[in-house]
Amino acid sequence: MGLNSLFDEYYEKSFIQGGTTCCPGCGGPLLWRIILEILGSKTIIYGDGPCAMCAVRNIKLPNFNLHFSFIADTATGVVAALAAKGREDITVVSSGGDGATADISLGKVSAAAERNENMIQICVDNEAYMNTGIQKSGLTPYGAWTTTTPLGKEAPKKDVPMIIAQHNVPYVTTASVAYPKDLQAKIRKAKGTEGFKYIHVVIPCPTGWRFNPAKSVEVVRLGVQAWAWPLYEIEEGFLRLTLKPRQRPVEDYLKAQNRFRHLTDEQIQYIQGEVDRKRERLLEFDGKRIIL
Amino acid sequence: MLFTRMMEGNEAAAWGARLSRAEVIPVYPITPQTEVISHIANFIAREEMKAQYIKVEGEHTAMAAAVGASTAGARVFTASASQGIVFMEEALWMPPGRRLPIVMCMVNRSLAPLGGLRPDHNDSLLQRDNGWIQLYCENSQEVLDTIIMAYRIGEDRNVYLPVAPCYDGYFVSATATPTTVPDQAEVDDFLPPYKHEMYNLMPEEYEPIPFYRPIAESRYEVQQAHERAKRVIEEVDKEYERRFGRSHDGLLEEYACDDVDAVLLTMGSMTGTVRDVVDEMQAEGKRIGLLKLRAFRPFPTEELQKLAEGYHAIGVVDRNTSYGSAGGGIVSMEVARALYLLEEKPLLVNFHVGLGGSDVTMRQVRYMAGKTLEAVEKGRVDSMVDWVELKDLGEVM
Q1: Whole-prediction pTM value?
Q2: ipTM of the complex
């Protein structure tokens, strides 16, 4: 009884409803709770299809959703309508899953970035088309099992934050639900910045990554600690690492998920090499301008 | 009245959007629609028009942004053609289901392959089933007037549907005809600011739309809205005539049909040619008239039934193809269904003509009129559909 009333009290104040249609351990509802605490009530959210929508559907703020092929475009219309009505007090958030953002709607996200639309574009990245049953996307990492890559994905993960950064937009950042304070600071910065803001968050998916749902936050935290998902921001073209954790072997992160269990030692070494190379480059560019 | 001068269809469309005070205009260029958007760009650059003009990267985005803007309560205008309309197909299903009164000009152009830059109606007729109101226009004046009327129709609380004024590329889009541009104040008086009564996306007024509801129920609502739209189209046309002195006959125009045996039924720019031929042939004593189908969606079934009782034959002129269809072109199939319930049915003659934008000549119109009258005489129709352009027309009536 005591616990229930605690929940009731929380969800009374929160912009997300209690109970979701998401899988146990999904990072989606967690992500939106963290985000909405900062964005507040004057927010309109556009979300794409599943899985990102499963969480968005439970948001109490004005929101609507279309399919994967409608990222950043419908939100562009909302931004224009608000400008026409002089409602600059409202924040427009456009949310897309990894497949939507990196594959079918990459051109649309790029175009919205080019036009510098005044919106926050969030990539809710669980590293595959999870709702359709775990199919490979452009953001699935090298080696990961999915139902369409039964032997592991051959190509590396697309570097979408860096692609968007090269559009010279005011703000690009990577984040993780395992570091909520870091994520909230970035959302706050995005909210206070005029123009196109891109926030790329890797969220855990126990169903698709093949691990115990109770370990969700732990697993994504391992990814950050291993520098498999480094946290940085690019503000007006300047890169800054927002977290420089002591590096753990990437093997710790890979071994925590059964989607990587078929990997050979050579493949793990290869992934470690790629992670190290990227880490060195990030440390080298930390504090420097990375836009040509 | 502001002024009257010779004006191409595309400029008339831009004036229609300007006078309707469209607030958000997401567009992507495609021949033969491009002058619509360049005229609008100039209106905005000269500060004669105040609108959020979004230069998007493709038609799919144009319609998606239109959906977003309309949902957020803005009056939206856009225009496209041919491949562009097909490219935005996925997004075109959103506004009717969400009951958004977006107005989009469909500047007819044939589709690839087996098409070119010139018009036929397969691009807009492909949108037959998705819930858009389609009104076919014959000249610049009708384009301008129809856009202003389209907002009144679409934004009517009994309708809430998107409206597509359709007009043929080049024959209307790039052909200058005398056009009267009404005064802004008069248009403002006719067309009040847009406010959607069904929902509001603004946070202070937002009420969640139920996520799960029977799909059949929603679809039936859209269908009912189309039924109600028929009356609204007629009423808006009448009010437009009262205020501006011009009518375009709402759903269906009967031209020179007193005391005729048969009619040709047309859509779009070819209608002008048919008017002339009908005048000529009537002077020669031939009993042929003209029905101009202005609203293809909603299809004016009852109105057509009422008129059809007065004719012995209808010659449907289809500027489109429907491969492997039950018989003939898309319009003829609609007409056949509408007339099926009549006890005294006129004969149905069907022609394919003007495909890929080839000219519909007076000679061809005379041939079609002759064939339709011949059917009346014989009391039967010889072929399901007549591919007029492939015929050696020889001696025509």
Answers
A1: 0.95
A2: 0.94
